[in-house]
Design brief:
Hypothetical protein af1432; mainly alpha; about 450 residues; 2 strands; 2 domains; two-stranded antiparallel ribbon
Amino acid sequence: MKLRSHLLLWVIVALCCLLLSGINYLLFHSVVEIITIAVAMMLVAVAYIAGRKNNLVFRIGSLYAVVLAIDILHTLSYEGINVFPSWETNHSAQFWVLARVIESSGIALALLLPACKRCNIAYTVFYAFAGATGIAMIATGVFPVCYLDGTGLTVCKVTMEYITIAIIVLTLFLLKRAKSLEIKPYRQYILYALLFTALAEFFFTLYIDPYSITPVIGHVFRLISYFVILEGVVFRSLKEPFNTLYEEMNVMVEELTEILSKTTEIKDPYTRGHQKRVAEISEKLGRSLGLSQERLRDLVIACRIHDVGKLYVPTDILSKVTPVNEVEYEIIKNHVVESYNLLKGLPLNKRVFEIILQHHERIDGSGYPKGLKGDKLLLESRILAVADVIEAMNHDRPHRIAPGMAETLKELRENSGKLYDPLVVQTFFDLLEESGGMDQS
């Protein structure tokens, strides 16, 4: 998180708050409290949706379930709301103090023993009990007085605010020293949130009238701290499972691709490494042609498994040391359709299957299996077709010695625009000229 990138947003929030407080202070206070309560609700939801694998997120969510309940009572008991006619400004101040002490101490304790999953239940029960006890003390008049009309804040209220600030300072120290992987993703966000909370608490020690400017500034800093929590804990926690799932899918696809590629090589050992080399050439061509990362990834996957259908071709045909006859050639040609049929049920982008199905099609329509031509062919399949020829002509096969790069260039030059996409061919020539030759080993 970069402070500068959010500075403008925070300035706008502050100005809007000051403007709204000048128009209607009670509306301003209610809006700020509703936003913070909404964020707290999101934290609670995240704790049970995405926090089960992260003790810190779970504890913070449990903590804010208690905090939001107290903050709701603080909002409803604020002077002028009149939801509870018998309650006064003192009650609102008491609920505020209770919520802040629980919030600050709860974050500090959440950082302790981050790997202890069994501690989560004890933590949740403790703060639920503390919150319920505090609410009961305020409702029954046992809680210390925090505000007196005409006098302002009591010594107790100011002292509790400074105790809260001291707890926040201690928490910042714990954050700096924390090395747990569960804490690390959220460290910077919690740090900034606590700094703004400390500033808010300082301004809440200064007012005599709850409608004065210092509570406005305090609420602005508190609102900013909740925006930081929203971005750093709520949004990040919600994205984390999806990012993890995406990473796991990528690993699974990579492993599956490797298995299929090696399985093909077992059946046809004479072309060992062919699919991998084709993928390397295609990736260079695709990158030079400006393919997006997603399309480039699909192209590489297709290249790595484009010949898997050869598993259905008899070994004696694949390893034949003399040229194949027409019947045998028809059997070999069928490997394209077999590849498509074998792979199409896998959890891959549909484009991957189409690239594989089209990689023996030709620009003039003379290819197979469908005789597609021109723009009806995917650019990726046209790239694969050229890379396939380049690789094949530079490596030996059972029935012939590799023709070599000179013959490859001649083949591409003579059939550019006929069999092969001229743009792809020219891109290969440009790369060859720039690098002095593409590595085919």
